[in-house]
Amino acid sequence: MRAKIDINEVETRTKIRAKYLRAIENEEWGLLPGDVYVKSFLRTYADYLGLDSRQLIDDYKRRYERPSDHEMRQIAPLGRERDRRDKGPRPPGPPRAPRQPRGPRGPLIPPWALIGVVLVGVVVALYLVGNNKGGSTTSSSTPTHATTPQTKRPHHRAPHRARAVASTVKLQLVPTGAVYVCLVDGSGKRLIPGEIFNVGQTIPTKRSSKLMLTLGNASVRMKVNGVTVTVPSTGKPVGFDLTPASHTMLPAGKQPQCA
Fold first, then answer.
1. Which pLDDT value is given to residue 70?
2. Which CATH number fits the domain that encloses residue 16?
3. Percentage of the chain surpassing pLDDT 70?
4. Higher pLDDT, 194 or 137
5. Would you say residue 222 lies in a domain?
6. Which domain does 41 fall in, by range?
7. Domain end position, chosen among 86, 110, 131
8. How far apart (Å, rounded) are the C-alpha atoms in residues 240 and 245?
9. If exposure means fewest CB atoms within 10 Å of the residue's CB, which of 37, 152, 239, 247 is most exposed?
């Protein structure tokens, strides 16, 4: 405030949002994204204002930061060591009783007994394997009912129907303002002989193998075979050559004239 610097100017120079700058001024640390951002914003803001950023950050740590777990762990052993020094050496305890001599160990198992146990285990395993093989052969020898293979019926695909191509072109016009319409077919016959239609009037729908159209302006909604065609707004008459397969724009010299 003494430097007469606007908060928006600070936001532009420091790239710190104005709401975070206000939160720093009001010491509302909970509105900032996190502790790392607080220190970074404090450092940037202080450097911009020409203040001592280290002192501000140290102030913040002393007043608002809690000691980390690492610092607590370092303090705890120091306290225990100090307690030990204060208490002094431990008094000697009572003498320990002498250990009783152990009695003689039991007899060890001779090696030939271990070999015998292993041989018995191998014989039992071979006997079990032989029984399993015999059971599988007997079960496989039992006759099974042969399943009669199912005869697949030949699948006759229906012939693809050729897509029907329209032989005529259908033109629908709906005026959105005053518009001049001149429409002729491929032989030059006038289907709409140069009339002006206004909003609310019905322009008759026409069909033919070919249509040639002149519109005085773009104040009309146009559909060809049910598909909307955009009429460009050029400020001049617009012409179209319409067929069942395509629709193209006509230059001014080839547009039909009904006058």
1. 43
2. 1.10.260.40
3. 70
4. 194
5. yes
6. 1-86
7. 86
8. 13
9. 152
- Nearest CA to 182 out of 223, 211, 225, 218 is that of 211
Residue 11, burial from CB neighbour count under 10 angstroms (0-12, 13-18, 19+): middle
Residue 139, Cβ density class (10 Å: 0-12 exposed, 13-18 middle, ≥19 buried): exposed
Domain count, the chain: 2
Residue 145: predicted pLDDT: 47
Boundary residue ending a domain (86, 119, 140): 86
| In-domain check, residue 81 | yes
| C-alpha pair distances (Å), 126 with each of 120, 206, 253 | 10, 95, 104
Query: d(Cα 90, Cα 94) in Å, to the nearest integer?
Result: 12
* Among the listed residues 173, 172, 222, the one whose alpha carbon sits nearest the alpha carbon of residue 197: 173
Nearest to 229 by CA among 163, 241, 200: 241
Please check whether residue 175 is in contact with residue 199, taking contact to mean a CB–CB distance below 8 angstroms.
yes
Tell me the pTM. 0.38
Choice between 181 and 7, residue whose per-residue pLDDT is larger = 181
pLDDT tens, residue by residue, 76-91: 455 555 555 555 555 5
The reported pLDDT for the residue numbered 111 is 77
- Residue 176 sits at φ, ψ, to 5 deg, of -110, 5
The set of residues, in sequence order, having a beta carbon less than 8 Å from that of 41 and lying 6+ positions away, is 16, 20, 21, 24, 32
Residue 143 predicted with pLDDT over 90: no
